[in-house]
Amino acid sequence: MNDLPRLRAHAINSSLFPPTTLKAALDRLSFVQADPIRSPARAQDLILRHRVIDYKAGDLERQYPSLDIEEDILYAYGFLPRAVWRLLHPRKKVRLTKLENEVLAAVKQAGAVHPGELEKSFGRNRVLNAWGSHSKATTSALDNLQYRGFLRVCRRDNGIRVYAAARPIAETLTPMERLQELLLVMAGILAPALKTTLQAYAARFGRSRGIKDPGKALENLVRAGRLEKTTVDGLTYLWPPRKAVPEEAPRRVRFLAPFDPVVWDRRRFEHFWGWPYRFEAYTPPAKRLRGYYAMPLLWGDEVIGWANASAASGRPVLEFGFVEKRPTDGDFNIELEAETARLETFLDLRASSRDRKKVPPRAASRLKM
Predict the structure, then answer these.
(1) Are 74 and 80 in contact (CB under 8 A)?
(2) Lowest-confidence range among 214-218, 246-250, 327-331, 341-345?
(3) How far apart are CA 279 and CA 308, in angstroms?
(4) CA 273, CA 337: separation in Å to the nearest integer?
(5) Where are the alpha helices (H) located in the chain, listed in sequence order?
(6) Which of 3, 258, 290, 328 gives 20 to 30 Å between its CA and that of 85?
């Protein structure tokens, strides 16, 4: 593998595998990033809809207790199989605060606790959080206890995390062994992954685990044949050896979540597709270039633009932008209609017959150049 088109096809075909069951998709992905914004649905649902048969928005939350998965931070916050989750723990030990000890005791006694229930016992005091804003002290304590492995998310109620005590995880691997296993996971999720991205992850993990030379982890994996590599345009890519990956991406239109593994690494994105994509939900409206929740628009092996979606009158209302010109071939228009229909099914939109008469099917999608 020594050229850019083959790298792009590898990235698309490795990540956007044929749809399967929800559990099988989670196992194969190894991680699904979570985000609370619904525009038109949460990121985790938008990611899974391409990879799970007949997936509907909210299926992950509904089926979570039966899936043998956890919520935690890998390179971002999200959902991951328990086998991967175990590699993250135990994290560096720190002394718990008085409030954290009290919250932990309360959760253990109750079995499962909604954050709102704790406010009755611990009040609504607020503390400064890691993002510079203020959170409820009980919410902060729950987050810290989950991060340290004392608590886990056992389910969600209307999107709100419900916590239970987590079983202690025995440390059977050395910090370097754990790092190497996590790097293999990362390289698989982002395959082919930029070496610099994996190096940055190794450095962060090494600092938190006291590893003196975390850079050796990647060298060890390449030397052992557990990672393959190539260099294109001065950038080195790494990926776990796999069976043959098709060298061409299917000619299909997909609207990708801003945090989909295919587009997550913005430096790789710009190298692959030649333009900078940015997530603008937290950018002031006047400074946005592409929209509040612009989803990269994949056509074949090219990301040619973006789509902003909302739901109205029983159909997704889509506004498109293109980096260059909108494709004029008939195949693109057919695929665009098919992806719009898939999005409608995923959102499970049901409009009254009166509303459907008001909005002709093709008129529901608007083009924004």
Answers:
(1) yes
(2) 246-250
(3) 12
(4) 23
(5) 4-15, 22-29, 43-48, 59-63, 82-87, 98-110, 115-122, 137-147, 175-189, 195-209, 216-223, 266-273, 330-347, 353-358
(6) 258
- For each of the domains in the chain, give its residue range(s) and CATH number, in order of start: 98-165 (1.10.10.10), 253-367 (no CATH)
Once rounded to an integer, what is the mean pLDDT over residues 90-98? Answer: 90
**Alpha-carbon gap, residue 104 to 132, rounded angstroms:** 25
Indicate left, alpha or beta for 191 from its phi (over 0: left) and psi (-120 to 50: alpha): beta
Specify the DSSP class assigned to residue 96. Answer: P
Tokens of 321: 């932008």
Confidence of residue 170 (pLDDT cuts 50, 70, 90): confident
Distance, CA of 36 to CA of 158 (rounded, Å): 11
Query: How confident is the prediction for the chain on average, in pLDDT?
Result: 89
Q: Is 292 helix (H, G, I), strand (E, B) or coil?
A: coil
Backbone region of residue 52 per phi and psi (left: phi > 0; alpha: psi in -120 to 50; beta: other values): beta
| Residue 205 or 359, more confident | 205
- Nearest-Å Rg of the Cα atoms of the chain is 22
Q: pTM of the full predicted structure?
A: 0.90
Token readout for 114 is 């909604």
CA atoms of 90 and 96, how far apart (whole Å): 15
Phi, psi of 20 (to 5 degrees): -140, -165
CA 68, 74, 79 angle in degrees (round to 5)?
35
Dihedral angle at the C-alpha atoms of 204, 207, 212, 217, nearest 10 degrees? Answer: -30
Distance CA(76)–CA(176), nearest Å, equals: 21
Distance CA 340, CA 143 (A): 37
| DSSP-derived 3-state class of residue 293 | coil
